[in-house]
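User: Hi! I'm working on a homework problem where we have to compare a predicted structure to a textbook description. Could you give me the structure for the chain below?
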Amino acid sequence: MAQAIKRRARNALPLAVGDILLIVVSWIGAVLLRYETDIPVGAWADLAGFLPLVLATTLVFHGAAGVYAGVLGFASILEARQILIAQFATLIVLLPAVWALGRPVPLSVPIIATVLCCGAAGATRFWSRLVRWRQLADADADVDRLVVIGAGEAGGALVKDIQQRRAARVVAFIDDDDRLWGLRIHGVRVQGPLSDLGPVAETTGATRAVLAIPAAGPELVRRMATGCSEHGIGLSVVPPPSELLGRQVSLQDVRDLGITDLLGRAQVETDLDEIVAFVRGRRVLITGGGGSIGSELARQVASFEPARLVLLDHDETHLFDAAAGLPLEAVQRLADIRDETALALVFAEERPEIVFHAAAHKHVPLLEAHPVQAAHTNVLGTRNVIECAARVGVSRFVFISTDKAVRPSSVMGATKLAGEHLVLSGDSEMTCCAVRFGNVLGSRGSVVPTFVRQIRAGGPVTITDGRMTRYFMSIPEAVRLVLHAAALSRGGEIFMLDMGEPVRIIDLARRMIQLSGQRPGADVEIRVTEVRPGEKLAEQLHAPEERQHPTSHPSIVRLEPVKLPAQVIRSAVLSIVSATALQDGVEVRTALHQLRGAREHLTEPIAAHPTSTRMSEERAWI
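Assistant: Happy to help. Predicted structure tokens:
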């Protein structure tokens, strides 16, 4: 304790000595300003007699206000406020003292001196910052010169962070709000509308632009990307609201423009209070917690203060990586959902209240060749999770499904459809729902990482059919909507996420090649091969017989599922159990068709995996 006091005193001493000099000079200056050239005889002697009281009072209030607790060179608005408070308090004490001591100085002198002291104390503390800012402003060759697109809250917070880090020089804002034109934010002028990006970049010598509008739609992103490309400057972006999770934008969040930004959709605000009320204080378990969807679920759930977060996965590396990046300490359980005994032990020990079942095999062509493994994980594994959850009294069960479960043409889609039936046909007291959506950008094994790898290798970028389309959504947005749908569930529903407009895969390939700074066809070849086993040219998000109902969220639709008789589901599951034990792929396909056979529009069995024959759209068993 004594050492700490000595340390603080030693640090404060230089500032206090400097303040003594400033106070003396300020009061002398105040006397000169008050009397101008007609200084009375004895004025200096009276001031000298009064100065000890001035010095003692000022230093005491400076110390009490924390003026000497800061580090010189890192002054902020807090230090400025402390100086003003200390000087005002000093003035309040000194004015009555002047009166009580027979007015050794005129009453106006303390007022003038206070103003001078505030300016002098502030100047000494902010001088080093002003010098550094000037040095940064002159170091144009060493840092990026940035135009910030968007002068709103995010843009202001970003510029403040950049200036504090001295990582770049912000040379201009542009914003479509004409009320801001000509004004300055953190010393940076708002030059004009977004359409002035080119002229502003040329006149300011900008080398990069940052799109600081978190809710920017894809059209705006594409327009800004085109403008930057035309004027030879780079474009970075800040994350959408679904990734920021309510926090302020900082320089750390800024990233290069990616395909997710170009294919994204207009962001829809989500009622976080509803999700917080759903998650906070509850025990949450996520299967497939190391996967693309599972790890993002973990990240977002962790931000809503669960009582306990449990991640379950059979891959130790992915499980460890997912848990390592969380803001809280998640419980890691290494187990396979196909192992009923191990799974039951995890549920018995953790006793979750909410379960997100994201564990699944998802690679369509690969699973065509391995139907037994697909059914073992996606059907029997799902059954195991449901039974273990019901046994320990889980209150909410959320099944992550896919658009490939709609009129499936693949083993993968058929197993996910079977999973939907299993989840929605249970007779426990759990509130169960399925959430169905299309492709997510950037997930492992998906088309985007594949294209990135092919582009880096110099091509060719391979697509299976020029007419093929898919629905795309970013992983954070999909997970945020999954959480909202889970909060809306009353049991027995399928929720369908609004995926926007389908994207042609060939257009996706062209945009990704352009993002890499190369020309499609000229620098990187796009090669059309053939449709692979199990693939469709286009996906659907719901079947015609599934009635749609709106929800309180504009991007979530509730579907009335087609319920199959319990005995049909039970019989199919028993057949799959037998087939997987015998490693009989043909029997697995037959059992999956048995589940679909009750639906009037599904009439043909899944075709056996063709090893040398092209799997065309006409051969799909829809």
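For your comparison, note the following. Residues 600-622 have pLDDT under 50 and may be disordered. The chain has three domains: 2-136, 145-257, 272-439+473-499+540-597. Good luck with the assignment!
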